[in-house]
Amino acid sequence: xxxxxxxxxxxxxxxxxxxxxxxxxxxxxxxxxxxxxxxxxxxxxxxxxxxxxxxxxxxxxxxxxxxxxxxxxxxxxxxxxxxxxxxxxxxxxxxxxxxxxxxxxxxxxxx
Length: 111
Description:
The chain is an all-alpha fold. The chain has helices spanning about 5-25, 30-45, 55-75, 85-110.
């Protein structure tokens, strides 16, 4: 079964917000056992091996980068026919850019 994790995590988050609101404003009118069962059912649909927290954010960043790359280059990295040398050159240049970004941030912190 395919589960859209972004939608599911938003649903769980909104459910928690709704639950907090109901608790503050209608606590004695709510069948809390039914609410708890619904929340358990929602959470049970989250795959156990799905990353959460920072790792989930990194995965989402990777997915966004892939979509940008497909839009820009018309292909995925896996389907790109570049030779190994060209891939290594790209990676090397990215590392140089990263070193520049890191040095700039360190310089700003040292001010």
